[in-house]
Task: inverse folding
């Protein structure tokens, strides 16, 4: 019952622990969901940005190869034409025919021009008046230097009737280190942009071809930036830009967030720049984040609802258990009190009955003795025999009343349960049994170590006295009694064994020997009231222990085994 009360008092801490556990679980779920939410959204954005970067870089590499191939092709044609001029400078007609032929297969090629040392056009593919070009940068460059590398001009408008925006690729003409003029190919910028940069239009990207100083040659979609415009970001670079460079940022052209990639042409002072507008990607990312936030909120709300429901169910169950335990406590208290009153009344009745009945019983026995000495009975053999039966029955009844009185006094004499040496109790019991031991020539041995136990002193002595006396009494007639006593430690208790070589017991008699006034043998063979082992059982159970018997059968001896707890069980 004390355990039940303790359980009820610990209910509130248990509920607090349950709530803390549910809160910890909720925080854990929140952490896990938040981790997956941020990892999912961040991973989605990173993958999208990496894919955009890979696409832009791949297109930039493609554009770089196309531009290099186109310019290299034009430069090779200039070298071929220059070689023809060196072989036969006077054969202008043949040179002009070759120029026209190459122009036909190159849609972005406006014209080839052979310009003399004074800046006048000697040969070209048109029939109109020939312009004077000594002021052009490509002409002045070779006029004032001795290098022989292809020159790429800035975007300019041609000086013809149907003027076109073009860039010039030029090579010098020299005869014996003397400047003889310039051989130039004019490329239509708009057609060049359509041919080289058109691949990006269908992908939603922009492509631009720029010089190192940031001057734009073309940008696709065409017309967004005028050719010749200088982009200050590139203009601010000191020295040559990096060969391969990617970054994300606000584009200097339109101020939009873009993925930007530069590719440096190997043999030309040019950069191919490809950009991808990231704002649609960011809008898609925001939609994805919104969807993931909805999922996160849904799962978090579901988890919170489930945990709240679990908490409510647990608390409801605990409350029901509390109500049930309170009812059990009420019923147990009620029935415990009733049982205690009943036991007290029963023991009081047994005490009164055994004590008060002895007085009239002694009178009956006394008068029976007086009557048995009367001549009328003493001289009548039959009456004398019947009177002896009365006296014997009275004496037996007195012995039973004394035994019942002794049984009812167990636990009611005010003797406390204290810790004491069990070996000392056995040795004191042997002192009281000394006459019986000598008379029966019994061999009694105490083996092993004997622990300290919780027992009332007098009842402890009576316990061992009854057990040893029982072993001496029920010995085999043909053998001297041999009795061994020892103790063992088992988990939370001590086990005591009283082993004899006596008459033994049948299996169906092992429990009956502990019942009050139960005799398994005739009184003529073994005297006694049959209450000795019942007293032992009551003493042991009062101290929180138990007792049982073991035997292999008749004339196989018997082992009486009882246990006592290591601690005083009255605190439980």
Result:
């Amino acid at each position: 019952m004390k355990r039940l009360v303790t359980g009820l008092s610990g209910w509130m801490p248990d509920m607090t622990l349950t709530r803390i556990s549910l809160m910890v679980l909720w925080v854990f779920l929140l952490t896990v969901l938040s981790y997956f939410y941020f990892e999912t959204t961040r991973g989605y954005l990173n993958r999208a940005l990496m894919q955009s970067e890979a696409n832009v870089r791949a297109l930039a590499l493609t554009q770089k190869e196309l531009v290099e191939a186109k310019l290299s092709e034009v430069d090779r044609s200039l070298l071929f034409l220059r070689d023809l001029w060196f072989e036969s400078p006077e054969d202008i007609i043949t040179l002009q025919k070759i120029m026209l032929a190459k122009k036909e297969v190159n849609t972005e090629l406006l014209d080839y021009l052979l310009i003399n040392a004074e800046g006048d056009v000697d040969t070209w593919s048109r029939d109109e008046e020939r312009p004077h070009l000594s002021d052009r940068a490509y002409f002045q460059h070779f006029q004032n230097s001795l290098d022989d590398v292809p020159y790429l001009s800035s975007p300019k408008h041609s000086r013809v009737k149907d003027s076109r925006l073009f860039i010039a690729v030029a090579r010098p003409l020299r005869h014996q280190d003397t400047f003889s003029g310039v051989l130039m190919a004019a490329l239509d910028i708009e057609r060049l942009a359509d041919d080289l940069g058109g691949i990006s239009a269908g992908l939603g990207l922009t492509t631009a071809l720029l010089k190192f100083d940031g001057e734009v040659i073309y940008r696709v979609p065409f017309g967004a930036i005028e050719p010749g415009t200088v982009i200050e970001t590139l203009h601010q670079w000191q020295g040559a830009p990096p060969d391969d460079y990617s970054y994300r940022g606000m584009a200097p052209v339109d101020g939009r967030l873009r993925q930007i990639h530069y590719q440096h042409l190997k043999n030309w002072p040019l950069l191919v720049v490809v950009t991808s507008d990231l704002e649609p990607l960011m809008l898609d990312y925001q939609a994805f984040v919104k969807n993931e936030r909805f999922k996160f909120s849904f799962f978090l709300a579901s988890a919170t609802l489930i945990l709240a429901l679990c908490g409510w169910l647990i608390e409801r169950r605990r409350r029901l258990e509390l109500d049930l335990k309170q009812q059990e406590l009420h019923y147990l208290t009620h029935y415990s009190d009733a049982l205690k009153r009943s036991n007290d009344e029963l023991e009081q009745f047994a005490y009164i009955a055994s004590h008060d009945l002895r007085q009239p019983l002694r009178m009956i026995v006394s008068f029976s003795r007086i009557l048995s000495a009367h001549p009328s009975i003493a001289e009548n053999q039959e009456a004398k025999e019947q009177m002896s039966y009365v006296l014997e029955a009275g004496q037996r009844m007195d012995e039973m009343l004394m035994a019942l009185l002794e049984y009812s006094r167990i636990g009611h004499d005010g003797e406390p349960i204290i810790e004491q040496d069990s070996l000392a109790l056995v040795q004191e019991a042997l002192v009281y049994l000394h006459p019986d031991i000598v008379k029966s020539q019994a061999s009694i041995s105490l083996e092993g170590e004997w622990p300290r136990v919780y027992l009332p002193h007098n009842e402890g002595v009576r316990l061992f006295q009854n057990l040893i006396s029982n072993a001496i009494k029920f010995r085999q007639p043909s053998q001297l009694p041999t009795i061994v006593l020892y103790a063992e430690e088992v988990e939370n208790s001590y086990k005591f064994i009283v082993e004899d070589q006596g008459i033994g017991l049948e299996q169906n008699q092992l429990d009956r020997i502990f019942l009050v006034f139960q005799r398994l043998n005739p009184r003529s063979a073994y005297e006694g009231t049959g209450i000795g082992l019942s007293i032992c059982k009551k003493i042991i159970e009062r101290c929180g222990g138990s007792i049982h018997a073991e035997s292999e059968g008749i004339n196989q001896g018997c082992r009486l085994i009882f246990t006592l707890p290591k601690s005083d069980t009255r605190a439980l």
About this structure: Residues 191-281 form a domain with the Beta-Lactamase fold (CATH 3.30.450.20).
